[in-house]
């Protein structure tokens, strides 16, 4: 089986990266984690990936004079590694429009809210302040506008009485760890595809009631 060569970009411990690596160990998983790359050489996730015998690369953004030059180096590294799909997993950099457009339809992100609600940072605090009863996470394609790309899959959690941001974040993270490997598998296998700015799901990606199997 040909597997999609995938790079995971991180800036820290990379907890979502670790679950993707574990999922990709299955012989029938359609994506191969071919590179773990960080903009921070000290990122703990790099050591984990190296321990799993996955190629790693650190590109320290502080060594580049501007975002454009960093993104050019990032683009070159991904292409040199033969990467077909880019997965952002806690990558704390705003990418330039040129880079995003170069990887259009081949780059995804996971965001800790039910988009289009609560874009940007501090999403759990935003959810609590808004008084919503349901919160969650979304996997989406990356577009130049922040957190605005077509949505691949989502998972929801209840907002419970007495929740603070930390408690809510922990509940959402559990679902992130379930959702991201499932969404990546759908994309890498072709069961989720981008058409006309929308994500089209194959029938195999749904259950008999029409729900996403990844939820």
From TrEMBL:
Alphabetical list of NCBIfam families matching this protein: PurN
Instruction: Write down the top EC class of this protein.
Output: transferase
Residues noted as binding N(1)-(5-phospho-beta-D-ribosyl)glycinamide in the record, renumbered to the chain: 14-16
Query: Domain of life, per the record?
Result: Bacteria
Annotated site, Raises pKa of active site His, chain positions: 147
Q: Where is the Formyl transferase N-terminal domain?
A: 5-184
HAMAP family named in the record: PurN (MF_01930)
Is Chaperone a UniProt keyword of this protein?
no
Q: Which residues bind (6R)-10-formyltetrahydrofolate?
A: 67, 92-95, 109
| Residues annotated as the enzyme's active site | 111
Q: Which InterPro entries match?
A: Formyl_transf_N, Formyl_transf_N_sf, GART
E.C. number(s) listed in UniProt: 2.1.2.2
Q: What is the lineage of its organism?
A: Bacteria, Pseudomonadati, Pseudomonadota, Alphaproteobacteria, Hyphomicrobiales
Annotated PANTHER family: PHOSPHORIBOSYLGLYCINAMIDE FORMYLTRANSFERASE
- For this entry, the protein name equals Phosphoribosylglycinamide formyltransferase
Catalysed reaction(s) here are:
N(1)-(5-phospho-beta-D-ribosyl)glycinamide + (6R)-10-formyltetrahydrofolate = N(2)-formyl-N(1)-(5-phospho-beta-D-ribosyl)glycinamide + (6S)-5,6,7,8-tetrahydrofolate + H(+)
Q: Which CDD domains match?
A: FMT_core_GART
| Role summary | Catalyzes the transfer of a formyl group from 10-formyltetrahydrofolate to 5-phospho-ribosyl-glycinamide (GAR), producing 5-phospho-ribosyl-N-formylglycinamide (FGAR) and tetrahydrofolate.
Pathway given in the UniProt record: Purine metabolism; IMP biosynthesis via de novo pathway; N(2)-formyl-N(1)-(5-phospho-D-ribosyl)glycinamide from N(1)-(5-phospho-D-ribosyl)glycinamide (10-formyl THF route): step 1/1
């Amino acid at each position: 089986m040909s597997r999609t060569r995938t790079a995971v970009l991180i800036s820290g411990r990379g907890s979502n990266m670790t679950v993707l690596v574990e999922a990709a160990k299955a012989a029938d998983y359609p994506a191969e984690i071919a590179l773990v790359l960080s903009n921070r050489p000290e990122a703990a996730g790099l050591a984990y990936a190296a321990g799993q015998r996955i190629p790693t690369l650190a590109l320290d953004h502080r060594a580049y004079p501007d975002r454009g030059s960093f993104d050019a180096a990032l683009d070159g590294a991904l292409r040199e590694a033969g990467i077909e799909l880019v997965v952002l997993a806690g990558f704390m950099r705003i990418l330039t429009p040129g880079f995003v457009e170069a990887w259009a339809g081949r780059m995804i992100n996971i965001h800790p809210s039910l988009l289009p609600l609560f874009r940007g940072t501090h999403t759990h605090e935003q959810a609590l302040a808004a008084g919503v009863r349901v919160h969650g996470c979304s996997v989406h394609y990356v577009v130049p506008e922040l957190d605005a790309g077509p949505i691949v899959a989502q998972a929801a959690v209840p907002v419970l009485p007495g929740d603070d941001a930390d408690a809510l974040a922990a509940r959402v993270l559990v679902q992130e760890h379930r959702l991201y490997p499932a969404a990546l598998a759908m994309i890498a296998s072709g069961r989720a595809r981008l058409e006309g700015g929308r994500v089209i799901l194959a029938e195999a990606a749904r259950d008999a009631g029409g729900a996403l199997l990844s939820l």
